[in-house]
Amino acid sequence: MPNAKKNKTVRVALVQMAMHDAAEVNLKKALRFCRDAAEQGADIICLPELFLGPYFCKTETPKHFDRTEPIPGPTTDAFAPLAAEFDTTLILSLFEKRAPGLYHNTVALLDGTNGYIGKYRKMHIPDDPMYYEKFYFTPGDTGFCSWNTRKAPIGTLICWDQWYPEAARLTALKGAEILFYPTAIGWLASEKEQAQTQHNAWETIQRSHAIANGCFVVAVNRVGYEAVPADETPEIDAGIGFWGQSFVAAPNGEVLARASSDQEEILMVDLALEMIEEARRWWPFFRDRRIDAYVGLDRRFLTD
Q1: How many domains does the structure of the chain reveal?
Q2: DSSP, residue by residue, 37-61
Q3: Which residue spans within the chain are E strands per DSSP?
Q4: Burial class of residue 257 (count of CB atoms within 10 Å of its CB; 0-12, 13-18, 19+)
Q5: How far is it, in rounded angstroms, from Cα 304 to Cα 296?
Q6: Does 295 fall in a domain?
Q7: Domain of 86: which CATH number?
Q8: Does the residue 174 lie in any domain?
């Protein structure tokens, strides 16, 4: 059907949350937020990265492996009835237990009445002060994924993935028209003088993914200050202030909506999918890619 996407609108909900230490508290709150979003007509709902707990990667502490679960598992089971009731798509970022000693930072997809349809495992794993993710997560092996959900073809990437143009490009080339990035990002207490610069870079790189790929980008962050627990020894400072400001960028790079820097909220945004066709006609980056000239992108560094 030639103009099937003309005037098609997809309503997305960005659930910006602050996290409690107890998983059951976060689960209950996330279910409530998702129900509120679904009742407002959300077609696709995305929660922040690792929404069931505080961002525990601030230290290397083995007890946090107890936070893991299989996928599908108890959390997907808890959300499945809501997804089916409203026939909405849910994007859930979880700490996956694949096998004893083998864990991933993983997104699970529930697609309305279709239920669980698949997972994406975070490909890029950071290891920086207060972001010691390599201690916890095995790099993903799912590749970059696109799903034809009931409302739109979407791709899911996770936090540190958002800095890599290759990840956005490959996900878009697989057909994704909306890129979702569940996120946990903020600034360290010792770096507040760089806060605005860091935030601007984070938003700019994702807006560039929207432009370069002619697609929508949806970044969903957590919010609030999270201190290192008293029984864990911080190496450089007391915690991370997550900057919130979840946002949606259009295919032309325009920020369509942005959440606050300090409040929990549900940001509802209607995406007009015809903007994708329009952007790709005027900026035909896919047409003009020199796929014959990119030898070397699969190497670490070209002077080796």
Answers
A1: 1
A2: HHHTT-SEEEPPTTTTS--GGGS--
A3: 9-16, 44-46, 89-99, 102-111, 116-121, 127-128, 131-132, 146-148, 153-156, 178-182, 186-188, 216-220, 223-227, 239-243, 247-249, 255-258, 265-272
A4: middle
A5: 11
A6: no
A7: 3.60.110.10
A8: yes
Q: Confirm whether 263 is domain-assigned.
A: yes
Catalytic residue among 58, 97, 122, 151: 122
Length of the chain: 304
Catalytic residue among 34, 46, 49, 97: 49
159 is catalytic: yes
Query: How far apart (Å, rounded) are the C-alpha atoms in residues 239 and 9?
Result: 40
Show pLDDT as tens, one digit a residue, over the chain (304 residues).
344 455 699 999 999 999 999 999 999 999 999 999 999 999 999 999 999 999 999 999 999 999 999 999 999 999 999 999 999 999 999 999 999 999 999 999 999 999 999 999 999 999 998 999 999 999 999 999 999 999 999 999 999 999 999 999 999 999 999 999 999 999 887 777 778 899 999 999 999 999 999 999 999 999 999 998 878 876 555 789 999 999 999 999 999 999 999 999 999 999 999 999 999 999 999 999 999 999 999 999 998 6
Structure tokens at 231: 């029984």
Q: Three-state SS for 296?
A: coil
Give me the residue label for tokens 């279709």.
Answer: 114
Joined together, the tokens standing for residue 90 give 């849910």
Q: Could you list the residue range(s) of the whole structural domain that residue 84 is in?
A: 9-288
Do 71 and 107 meet the contact criterion of CB atoms below 8 Å apart?
no
Catalytic hit among 133, 159, 177, 203: 159
Q: Is residue 97 part of a domain?
A: yes
